[in-house]
Every structure is written in structure tokens, then in C-alpha cells.
Amino acid sequence: MGIKFENNTFHLFNQNISYIFTILKNNQLGHLYYGKRITHRANFDYMLVTNSKPNTVCSFEGDGAFSLEYIKQEYPTYGSTDFSEGAYQIKQDNGSIVTNFIYKNHTIMQGKPKLMDGIMPATYVEDESEATTLTITLEDDLLDCLMVMRYTIYEDRDVITRDVKFINKGVENLVLTRALSCCVDFDHKDYELLQLSGAWSRERHIKTRKLVEGIQSISSSRGASSAQQNPFIALKALNTDEHRGEVYGFNLVYSSDFLAQVEVNHYETARLTMGINPFTFEWQLKKGEEFQTPEVVMVYSQNGLNGMSQVFHSLYRERLVRGKWRDESCPILINNWEATYFDFNEDKIIDMAIEAKRLGVELFVLDDGWFGKRNNDCTSLGDWYPDLNKLPNGISGLSKKITDLGLKFGLWFEPEMVNKISDLYKKHPEWIIKTPNRKISHGRNQYVLDFTRNEVIDYLFNIMRKILKKSEISYVKWDMNRNITEPYSLNLSKEQQGELMHRYILGVYQLYHRLTKEFPHILFESCASGGGRFDPGMLYYAPQGWISDDTDAIERLKIQYGTSMIYPLKSMGSHVSAVPNHQVNRITPLDTRGNVAYFGTFGYELDITALSEDEKDIIKKQIEFMKQIRKDIQFGTFYRLLSPFNSTDKVAWMVVSKDQKTAFLGVYQILAKPNPKYDRIKLVGLNPNYQYEIVRKNLVLYGNELMNYGIIYNNCVNESKERKIGVSDFSSDIVILKALERCKR
Ligand code: DGJ
User: Fold this and answer.
1) 708, 682 Cβ separation under 8 angstroms
2) Does any ligand 1 atom lie closer than 6 A to the CB of residue 481?
3) Is 479 a catalytic residue?
4) Contact assessment for residue 724 and residue 712, using Cβ atoms and an 8 Å cutoff
5) What is the CATH number of the domain that holds 77?
6) Whose CA is nearest to atom 1 of ligand 1?
7) Is 337 in the pocket of ligand 1 (CB under 6 A)?
């Protein structure tokens, strides 16, 4: 296992996967194979396909077969016989973009180095034996510039990560106009491209399309990874479904502008590239300087989309998320946003907290509106001191009262923003991102602070630190509610304006880094108008994220289903909210709202004091139930079964505990069907030889029966005994399966 180098060829492999590339005759790197594990051999030359083709341009005189238009490459560039879009481009003093990086040397080591001293988010290892890293240095001697390409393969995970560093050792100032994190050349185009697309309130819906000749891409140019497109694409074989078939998944560990692209050329090869979006990027690589790209995570699975997702889930849960919250279940919280919006005072918050505590909630989160004069969204962002009119005892007094009740206390911030009506803006109007002499656009009446400035980060660190130190705070919700426009920084030279978006996000990471270091006990939840920046870069700092402002249980089926394509349940903020729902006005049963929210972090976002005693009873039971099951749900294996993107009536998913002794099946009816068809749901992931009791259904079946025959879903009655699945709109059921004692050996 690990990485072998023989006959100029690198073979990265573990039990299940192989990745092979070679040093070509022109001393650049040529791609040979990525997929299911194959036996190592001393020589993989047979995989290198060169061909004499009519009308191509070739690298060597007298050799009509060596053309980069045809040969698969590792990290190509445009300009020397390759006419597709490359992975990088460097503009030189004389205006040329032609480069020639050739192999210089390489090292192979156990473990995985950090990126930028750990500030740049990346997956990691805890023990060096978990992964092997190959570092290859290539050099363009005319430019005296190095390109350092890094590949890490995990031993027990079907994961390869990649990143690239450019080092300018020369005398010339270079300009990076494209610096993507990876390229994989596939030798055919018979794949479907899967992406997660959406908008505010309907984030990460699954979309697929067949590859065709030309460029197909998704990207963001908003200064955030975005709700519109997630920095993820997968290529799946045409017959791949949730449970079977080949799929390659690519996810950029980055929270700002990205590009994920597949270019199919005239020989029907498909070039996949991913990295920082070149559209909003240009980097001055001055002499002596270096530039580090973000990391891309590549997952190969033969076990369908669920197989791919499970590899991402465990990697992110165990080796991306850090700190004490990585290994602990999520606290059950209540958030006051949809209950009060800006309209609250200390008494109201305490009343809610008392009731929440009585029902079993563990954490009270005070959302927007507690600072400055924040009675609406026109004012006070930047002024991070408590509004004593609303909270006469400040945050420290309120947090004390709440913790005295036996609850933990959490607080909302939106550090990256400022309102013009604020003390901060009065003092530092120059701190916002704006283009000189141009109109500035607002989003929700707010402006973006220039995170390329150290003084901005220092100000925010100090003011947040003061509150966090003085109060009893164990959770912070870090929100971000608008994208960047009129991109320009007064802090950067005119040549550096193309660096703004990347420097901005490095500033965000820097502030996260300082706060998480100083307050390691605090659980950070990231948020960006819901799921507008839900990506692995954020997960590195904030173990959970608010996946959408849409809290309607039926809309959530799609959002949670899509988000689970890459991100683990434990990272997915999910709340039960009031009806009629505030986003779509829909009325759904309280048990269905709970049944959807269980498959996530779980919490409430409603005025708990305004509920009926019956509703409070249901909530009390939901919380007791979640406390019993959350370890299994949040650390178990998640399977998608019936997709809301294929079906207009039923949706199903399930979690199997690590030891396969317990499983939870969630089944959700969207619209009821009169006289419905016969429905049978086959379960997955169980132990075929265990006998499982189907709790509350008076039935014991073998795992192999449940996985091959399944469960019939025509006449199942859910907990309330009133709504039958299939007979009522928005009804749902959670089926609990428990392995019998005699199987538990
Ligand atoms: C947007 C978030 O997504 C909401 O949950 C809430 O925190 C509001 N911002 C507060 O302004």
C-alpha cells in the first residue's frame, strides 16, 4: 500500500483504488489511470497511448505521435500542442504565457503535511501511518520557477487529495492567471456530470447531465462558495445509481470563488479541472514569493453514489472537522430567530429558555438583534456590544441566567459585515470593499468589510474576544448575509486587485483560526443566509453549518438529500420550526418536522412558549428520542433510498449504526395518492444474518429479508395514529430496527 515509483512511473494505491501517472518523454507528467485497484507492476508503459493523428501539432521533430492534444496529462497548460483549457497559466514580463515545467525530483513520505501552517483548510491525519504523501517538484528553468505538486493517498479511505504550490525563485515578477488545484484527464466521455445547484432557500439540489463535446462547468464569482453551486462535481458511469456503479467525486476544500469544469474534446476525452475561479483571480507572484492552491479531495467508488458519499462523510467527520466537537454528539438547541426575529428582550428570552429547559433542550442560541441598536436589518453590524435596552444585564448577565437554568448559551455574530448606520462605519468608512468613484451596491442594507486588512481582523478578534471571554458562551453562530460586489480593495495595489477574493477568504480563515485557537471549547456553526457558504473549508473551522434558511420539512427533504451527497449528517444544521412555515407557508405535522430534523444536528426554531400542551408533549418526546438515537445517527452510516428528485410522493433514507445493531429508516410522504400503488422499500447496510426487531411493528426479520424483500409501505400508521403513510399529505414514519440480543455476539 502507499506510493511506488518505478521506471519513471508513480503508482498510488490502497486496497481499493489505484492512481497512476508517468514522466513523459518531454519530462512533463502524463496521466495513465485512475480507478479500481490494479496489481502493481514494474512498468505501465502499455497504458500510455500516443498516436499519429492527422492535423495535430507535435512536440518533437521526427515524431508525429507525441502531441499533448492527445496524451492525457496530470497538470496541463495551454500553449504547447494542447488546445484545451489547462490547469494553470503564468503571464510573464514579455507578455508570453508559454511555460515548460519539467520533472526535477520527488519525495515520498508517510503522513500528510499541513497547508499554510494549518490556516488553509485541509484534511489531515492523526497518525503518520494513515496516509502517504508524494511531493513532486517541477521546474521551468527559463523562469526559475518551481511547481510543487502534492498527492496524498489514505491507507483505509478511498481518498486522494491534491494541491499545488508555485514558487518564484527567479528575478522576474510573474502573474498567475490560473492556478487550479487538480486536473484529471479521463479517456472517454461516457459519464453523467452530477452537481449540487440551487439558490437561497433551496440549496444543493441534485442535477445531472450527460457529458457532451465542449466545456461544461459550474462556478462561483460571489466571494463565497455560494448557494447557487457547491464546489463539488461527480462523474458517474451511465448505469450508476445510489447503490451500484462507478463514480468519481471531487470537492474543493475552499469557501470562495471556484471553478469545476469538464471539457470534452474532439477525441471524446474528458478533462476535469477544479480550483479557484480564474474569472475573478489574478495573483502577482513576485520574485521570492510562493502561492498555495487549496486542496481538492478526490473520491472513487464502485458502490454507487451512497458509496462515494460514505467515504466523504467519514473523511470529513473524522479528518476534516477538528477539536472537541468532532467526537461529541451535537447539542440539542433552540434558536430564537424565527420565534422573535429582532423583537425580543431579556424576559422573553428567559421565558423561552425556561420552557426549553423543561422540555429537554440543551443549548439556547440568541440570534441576530442583541447588539448596537439592531431593531431591524438597517443598522449596527460591526458594533458588537450588547443593546442594554433589550438586555439590561448585557450578554454576560443573560448568559449567566441561562447557564444557571442548566442550559448552555450560544450567540450569533456576522463579523464580516457593517451597516452604514453604525459606530464602526462612522469611524472607518475606508474599511469596506468598494471601487473608488463608483456606486456601492448593498445587500440587506449591509457592506462587506475588507478582510485583506489586518487591522479589520484585529478589530473583530478583539471585540468578539471581549464578549466571549466575559460571558458564558459555548457556541457561536457565524453568519454571512451578502456576496461581494464592486470588488476592489483600497488596501491593495492596482496590480493586486485580482487577489482580493482569495485574500478575503484567507482573512476569514485567519479570524476563524484565531478565535478557535483561543476558544477551543466553543462550537462554531457557520451560516451564510442559510447554506450560502456550506463547504469543506468552513467545516474545517466550524463543525456544523446551517444548511438552509428554509425550515419547511418538505423542502428540507430535497436540501438534506442533496447536501448528504458529500456532507455528513453531523454537520447539517436541522431545526423543527413553526407552522405555517415562514418560507413557504406550508403546514406540516409536528412529528414529520421532527422526523426530518432527526437526520442532522437537531434543534428547534420556534416560540416554544406559544405552543399548546399537546405540542409541548410531542416536543418533549422528540427530544428524549433524539437523545437516545443521536450517537447512532450522527456517527452511523447514512444511505439514501428514495430520492425526492425522482419521486413526487415518497422519500426515504436510513442510518445504520456503526456496529450494525441498530438502524433508523425515515419514510416521508409528500403528496398523498388516492388508491396508492404497492410500495416496497428495500433496506441496505444491515447485517444479513442478524435478526432485527422492527420496533412497534411486532415483527422480527433477518437482515437479508429486510434487504431483499424489504418493508411494505401501504398501510403503515405513524406515531400519531392519525396520518397513514400514503394517505395523508406530509405524513412520515421512523422505523427503528434493533438486532435481537442473541445476534449481538
Ligand atoms: C440569516 C440566517 O440564515 C438566519 O438563520 C438568521 O441568523 C438571520 N440571518 C439573522 O439575521
Assistant:
1) yes
2) yes
3) yes
4) no
5) 2.70.98.60
6) 529
7) yes
Active-site choice (82, 368, 535, 549): 549
The residue written with cell numbers 462523474 in the block is 235
Task: Count CB-CB contacts under 10 A for residue 724.
Answer: 17
Q: How far is the CA of 481 from the centre of ligand 1 (A)?
A: 8
3-state helix, strand, coil in the chain (%, to 5): 25, 30, 45
Q: Spell 425-446 as b/e; 16+ CB within 10 A means b.
A: beebeebbbbeeeeeeeeeebb
From 158, 387, 479, 679, the catalytic residue:
479
Residue scoring higher pLDDT (366 or 673): 366
Q: Domain range for residue 689?
A: 642-739
pLDDT at position 679 is 84
Name the residue at shortest CA distance from atom 11 of ligand 1: 368
Residue 424 host element (H or E)? helix 423-427
**CATH assignment of the domain containing 682:** 2.60.40.1180
Task: Examine residue 452 and state whether it is found in any structural domain, yes or no.
Answer: no
368 lines ligand 1 (CB under 6 A): yes
Distance CA 735, CA 661 (A): 14
Number of structural domains in the chain: 2
In a domain, 90, yes or no: yes
- The whole-number average pLDDT for the span 273-278 is 98
User: Which of 370, 481, 574 is the pocket-test mutation for ligand 1 (most atoms within 8 Å of CB)?
Assistant: 481
Q: Which residue among 365, 525, 527, 572 has the greatest number of ligand 1 atoms within 8 angstroms of its CB, and so is best to mutate?
A: 527
DSSP string, 274-324: EEE-GGG--EEE-TT-EEEPPEEEEEEESBHHHHHHHHHHHHHHHHTS-SG
- For 428, list phi and psi in degrees, rounded to 5: -135, 65
- C-alpha 545 to ligand 1 mean position (Å): 12
Exposed e or buried b for every residue in 198-211, given b needs 16+ CB within 10 A? bebbbbbbbeeeeb
User: What is the residue-averaged pLDDT of the chain?
Assistant: 96
Phi, psi of 295 (to 5 degrees): -90, 145
Q: 206-225, pLDDT tens digit by residue? A: 999 999 999 999 999 999 99
Q: Is residue 339 part of a domain?
A: no
Nearest CA to ligand 1 atom 10: 368
Predicted local distance difference test score (pLDDT) of residue 724:
63
Q: Which atom of ligand 1 is nearest to the CA of 605?
A: 5
Cα 219 to middle of ligand 1, angstroms: 24
Sign of the four-CA dihedral 718, 722, 725, 731: negative
C-beta 366 within 6 A of ligand 1: no
Answer whether the bond into residue 676 is a cis peptide, omega within 30°. Answer: no
The values of phi and psi at residue 690, to 5°, are -80, 145
E strand residue ranges, 73-188: 88-91, 102-110, 131-140, 145-154, 159-168, 174-186
In a domain, 563, yes or no: no
Whether the model clears a pTM of 0.85, i.e. scores above it, the answer is yes
Nearest atom, ligand 1, residue 367 CA: 7
Which DSSP category does 37 fall into?
Answer: -
Q: Is the CB of 339 under 6 A from ligand 1?
A: no
For ligand 1, whether the C-beta of 338 sits within 6 Å is no
530 CB under 6 A from ligand 1? yes
First to last CA, the chain: 32
| Structure confidence at residue 719 (pLDDT) | 46
